Amino acid sequence: MTARVGIVVFPGSNCELDCERSFERLGASTEFVWHDDNTLPDVDIVVLPGGFAHGDYLRTGALARFSPIMHSVAEHAAAGKLLIGICNGFQVLCEAGLLPGALRKNEGLKFLCKWTELRVEVPGTPFTARAERGQLLRIPINHFEGNWYADPDTVARMRANHQIVLRYVKNPNGSLDGVAGISNERGNVLGLMPHPERACESLLGSEDGAVIIGSMLDHVMHMQPSPAGV
């Protein structure tokens, strides 16, 4: 059995090939899905990759949330299937109301492209099952609007629900509470600013991104029924 991954491509996406390579290297099959399609193919995981959807001309993710495919993406998440938004994809998920909060310009108003260390705060999720609590992951960032924030009540609720899955060890962008990655209440949707797909090969400087992607594939394979007679 092979996990099936749909990678949504918006005008301006630029990380879809990185996602394809990393998921396939870890054993999944992938398929690109154009933002103007009305339905998703039969996939286990949906990825909203990084880039600049619609040029980010209005506000990051603000136009992408209205793409026809987003209705099916929301249905996919409502069915309990895995959905991950990386960088620009995280921004789209927040704009679409699939994750709480919003992303604003980095503290200092500078574009950041650098390696960061993330700390796993919530192990055992479909995205962190291969990690231990407190484990550090070396994963790069590449963004101008990665400064996550939300109102105090939302943050308090997320802390209580264990939705702050990943934090920066040294906060690079001013993100509230050091947030690098958050989940929805159900735990099947994750948004994160760092790029795990760019950290799955030692030649690229780190394989720590495979902890996140591999956890997702493990989750899918565990949920899939075995073939008859096995």
Please explain how this structure is put together.
This protein has 5 helices and 11 strands, in the order βαββαβαββββαβββα. The protein has 230 residues and is of the alpha/beta class. It has a single domain, classed as Class I glutamine amidotransferase (GATase) domain (Rossmann fold), CATH 3.40.50.880. Strands 2-1-3-4-11-10-9-6-7 form a 9-stranded mixed beta sheet, sandwiched between helices. α1 (16-25) links the parallel β1 and β2 (29-34). The longest helix has 15 residues, at 209-223.
Question: What is the oligomeric state here?
Answer: single chain
Rg, nearest Å: 16 Å
| Count of individual helical segments | 5
The N- to C-terminal Cα distance equals: 12 Å
Helix content: 10-25%
For the report, how would you describe the main beta sheet? Answer: 9 strands, mixed
Taken as a percent bin, the fraction of beta residues is 25-35%
The CATH class, by name, is Alpha Beta
Short description:
23% of the residues lie in helices and 25% in strands. By secondary structure, it is an alpha/beta fold.
Secondary structure topology:
Layout: E1 4-9, H1 16-25, E2 29-34, E3 45-48, H2 69-78, E4 82-86, H3 88-95, E5 102-104, E6 112-120, E7 136-143, E8 147-149, H4 152-160, E9 164-168, E10 179-183, E11 189-192, H5 209-223
Parallel strand pairs: 1-2, 1-3, 3-4, 4-11
Antiparallel strand pairs: 5-8, 6-7, 6-9, 9-10, 10-11
Write out key terms for the chains shown.
single chain, 230 residues, alpha/beta, Rossmann fold, 9-stranded mixed beta sheet, two-stranded antiparallel ribbon, 5 helices, 11 strands, disordered C terminus
